[in-house]
Write a structure and sequence with these properties.
Elements (H helix, E strand, L loop, with lengths): L4 E5 L5 H9 L5 E4 L15 E2 L3 H7 E6 L4 H9 L4 H4 L5 E4 L5 H12 L4 E4 L2 E2 L2 H6 L2 E6 L2 H14 E8 L3 H29 L4 H8 L7 H11 L13 H14 L4 H18 L8 H8 L7
Parallel strand pairs: 1-2, 1-4, 2-3, 4-5, 5-6, 8-9
Antiparallel strand pairs: 7-8
Length: 298
Amino acid sequence: MRNSGIGFIGLGQMGLGMANNLAKIAAPFYAYDAVPAATERLNGDDIIIANTLGNLAANCHLIFLCLPSAKEVNEVIFGAGGIAESAQGDLAIIDTSTIDRLEAIAIHDQLAGRSIAYADCPISGLPFRATDGTLTLMFGGSKLLFDRAKPQLDAMGEFIVYCGESGAGQMMKAVNNIIYDINIVALCEVLPLAVAGGLSTEALTQVVTTASARSFAGDHFVPRMLARQFDNDFPMEDAYKDILNVQRIAIEKHAMTPLVNAMTSSYQNAIAAGYGREPKSSIIKIYEKALGTEFSDQ
């Protein structure tokens, strides 16, 4: 008999909101985090807090992961006392972490040998969208598992996209983020130049956030650049795995990627300058330094 539980592992900045939304429709619902205090922020009296990964895995037929990197994903699944040791019946794992495409394929193939289904399903959206249940989810895995898990995916996201077989979700996330990253670097490169050329930051802000150059990157980062707010956002060096994903497929397909290459150089220069733990908007600092100017509302 198949276990009836649905589980969620990883209650960080994004996972907490996702788990709270999933708990509204899933029963019984199990949650686990390596930091026990993280479970105190969950909403819902009926949520079952698993004291071990094995306890969660033994009671669930569907488990969602939201973890920082492939290292944690592999530890949670294959480590001592992990999911693979305690899996029962036709267990399926849907991994919303952002990891390397090849790592996702390797995990899928290894689990297939244990009769455990695995899909990579990275997410896009800020923490408030995780809380609101309006994320974009990009699913890479079997269509059968996608259809089976669609009600749970719908509880966490507004835009649910089936991207293809194993690894396709990570590839889609990387493609989306690379375009976003190019946009951010364009802002970081051009805004200080515009200030050095005599344009006011106020006028620049009004135009690039309303005219044809408007983008999500501008809406999100331009106000933060103006306020010199270079914290409380996703560190750029943690996002570097998206660049690696696209670089690998570009090499495999012998593609020409001059814009990607130029963007990558800007990221590398900013990380080398010591800004790796700051958000992507900190790239502006290397261009400001070269020009001796600052994009600021001060």
